[in-house]
Amino acid sequence: MDKHLYNITSKNEAEAVWAKCLSIIKDNLNWRTYQTWFEPIKAAALSGTVLTLQVPSQFFYEWLEEHYVELMGKTIKRVLGREGQLEYRILMEGASTQRNPAAINIPASNYHKPSKDSNYVDMPLKWDDPSNIKTPYAIPGLKRMQIDPQLNANYTFENYVEGDCNRVARSAGLHVAQKPGATSFNPLVIFGGVGWGKTHLAQAIGNEVRRLHPNKAVLYVSADKFINQFIDHSKNNEVNDFIHFYQLIDVLILDDIHLFVPAAKSQDVFFAIFNHLHQSGKQIILTSDTPPKDMEGIQERLLSRFRWGLNADIQAPGFETRQEILRQRMRREGLELPDDVVKYIAYNVQSNVRELEGALIALFAQSTLNRKEVDLDLAKRVMKNFVKTAARELTIENIQKLVCEYFHIPYDRLLAKTRKREVVQARQITMFLAKKFTKSSLKNIGEHFGGFDHTTVIHSCQTVENLMHTDGEYKENLLELQQKVQLASI
Questions:
Q1: Using an 8 Å Cβ cutoff, are 257 and 286 in contact?
Q2: How many CA atoms lie within 13 A of 260 on its CB side?
Q3: Do the beta carbons of residue 93 and residue 307 sit within 8 Å?
Q4: Residues 282, 250: contact at Cβ < 8 Å?
Q5: In sequence order, which ranges of 92-154 are alpha helices (DSSP H)?
C-alpha cells in the first residue's frame, strides 16, 4: 500500500477513536476544564492499540499527566480494550534557531528523553548555563552593576490567592520561578482582563526568582516605559547601549505588551532583545490584556515567538475567590468584617481585584470617620459608589438568569426542550433553586421552562439532591449558586 495513503487512513482512524474518547471524557468533567485541556488535543496516529495524541506544549503534557492520567487511561482502555495505550506528540515551534515545527513522542506516564539514535527530533529540555554565554557587545562594567528590579515587594505568591480563574497561570509561574530559562514555557505569556492579577503574578515570579536565585538579574518594566526609554536613547544615538543593557537581564518581565501596537520601531528593538535572551537561556515573562492571537498591529514574527512557550490566561475571579481575596487583605491589615458583609461585597464587585479591595478600604474609612460598626446596612450605603444596585424581588426569572450566567448558557437555550447534558443539568439546578427560594408552586415553576409539568420539577429536584451526595464538584457549584441567589435577594 502507498505509504502516504496509509498515514491518511491511520489519522482518520485515530480521529474516530479520539472522538469516542472525548465523548466519555466530556461526561466526566465540567465544560471549562474540558474546553481548556481537551479541545486543543488532536489525534495524530493510531498504530494497533496505541493512540498518538498531539498536544501544544511540554507544559500541557505535564499537566495532563499530573491531573488527568487516570481518566485518560481508563477511557482509552474502554475504547481500545485492555491493551489500549496513549502516546503524546509535543509540537515545539521555533526552539532556538529552529523555525519549522518539530515533534517528539512521549509514551503516557513514562517520559524519557529520546536518545541520540532515535528517529525523533531531540527537544532541548535544559539550556546552557547563561554564565557561559558571551554578550557580543557588552558594555564594560555593566555586568557588575546592581540593577534595580523595579519589583513591588508586596507582590508575592503568598499574597496571590489561587482559584479556578488563575490556577494554571500560577502553577506555571511557580515552575518558571524555580527554573528560570530552563523550562519549556519560555516565554511565559500571561493574559487576562484589567485588574485580574496579571501584574501581581508576573512580579511574584520576579520576587521568587530573586529569593531562590539571588545572583540572577531580574527586571520588571511596563511596555510604555520600555517605549519611552527607547525613544530617549534614539534621540541621543544610544540605541546600541539600550539593547545591550536589556541583553544582560536574566529574567525580563515586560508588562502590557499590547501597548506595542503603535510602536513599530520599539517592536523591532524588542525582537532583537527577545531573540538574544531566548537563545541565551534567559527567561522572558510577558503580560497582556488579550491573547497573542488577538493582538492586531503586533508583528507576526513577534507573535510567532510569543507562541513558543506557554500562553496562560487569567479569568475574572469567581465568587469564592473574591471572598478569599477580601479575607486575605483583612488578615494583612488586621481588620475584621462580619461574614455576611464579606459575601455582600464579593457578590456585588465582580469587575476586578482593585475595585474589590477599594470597596473594602472605603468601607473601613466610612466606619472610622463616622464611628460606626461595620454592618450590612453600612456596606449597602458604601457599595452604591462602586456598583449600580437596585432592589428587586427574587423571581424564577432572576434565578434563571443567574444560572445561565454561571454556566455560560444563553437564556433561550435554558427554556428550549433540548436533551443536551449541560442544558438539562442547568435546568434541573434552576428548578431546584426556584423551589427552594421562591413560593412558586411546582406547576408554576414548570410553566416557566416552556410548559414542563410538576412531575418533571419533582424529578429534577430529586436528581439534584442525589448528585449533591455523590459528586463533590457538582456540590461546590450548587453551593456557590445558592449563595449567589441568597445575595441577590438581599
A1: yes
A2: 31
A3: yes
A4: yes
A5: none
* Residue 169: all three cell numbers together: 497561570
| Domain 3-107 listed as CATH 3.30.300.180 | yes
Let me know: does 98 contact 82? Beta carbons within 8 Å.
Answer: no
Question: In angstroms, rounded to a whole number, what is the distance separating the alpha carbons of residues 482 and 477?
Answer: 9
Q: Give the pLDDT confidence score for residue 393 in this predicted structure.
A: 57
Specify the CATH architecture of the domain 319-383.
Orthogonal Bundle (1.10)
Handedness of CA 236, 237, 239, 245 (dihedral sign): negative
Annotated domain spans of the chain: 3-107, 147-314, 319-383, 396-488
Give the bridge partners for 105, in sequence order. Answer: 89
Q: Contact at 8 Å (CB) between 185 and 62?
A: no
Superfamily of domain 396-488: DnaA protein, C-terminal DNA-binding domain (1.10.1750.10)
**Class of the 147-314 domain?**
alpha beta
The Cβ-side half-sphere exposure at 148, using a 13 Å CA radius, reads 3
Which residue is it, cell 441577590? 488
Q: Both ends of the chain: CA-CA distance in Å?
A: 72
* CA atoms in the 13 A half-sphere facing the CB of 351: 9
What pLDDT digit, counting tens, does each position of 197-248 carry?
899 999 999 999 999 999 899 999 998 889 888 888 888 888 888 888 888 8
Query: What is the pLDDT confidence band of residue 115, given thresholds at 50, 70 and 90?
Result: very low
> pLDDT per residue over 31-83, tens digit each?
767 877 888 899 988 988 899 998 876 667 777 877 788 899 899 999 999 88
DSSP alpha helix (H) spans, 50-190: 58-67, 69-80, 167-178
Q: How far apart are CA 478 and CA 490, in angstroms?
A: 19
Residue ranges of E strands in 300-455: 310-314
Kindly report the three-state secondary structure assignment for every residue of 283-337: EEEEEECCCHHHCCCCCHHHHHHHCCCEEEEECCCCHHHHHHHHHHHHHHHCCCC
- Cell numbers that stand for 97 in this block: 534557531
- The three grid cell numbers given for residue 87, joined into one nine-digit string: 502516546
Q: What three-state secondary structure class fits 52?
A: strand
- Contact predicate 316/196, CB 8 Å: yes
pTM of the model: 0.53
Backbone CA torsion sign across 177, 181, 184, 185: positive
The tens digit of pLDDT for each residue in 436-480 reads 888 888 888 888 888 888 888 899 999 998 888 888 888 888 888
CB 203 within 8 A of CB 160: no
The length of the chain, given as a count of residues = 490
> Contact at 8 Å (CB) between 333 and 215?
no
Helix (H, G, I), strand (E, B), or coil: what is residue 396? helix
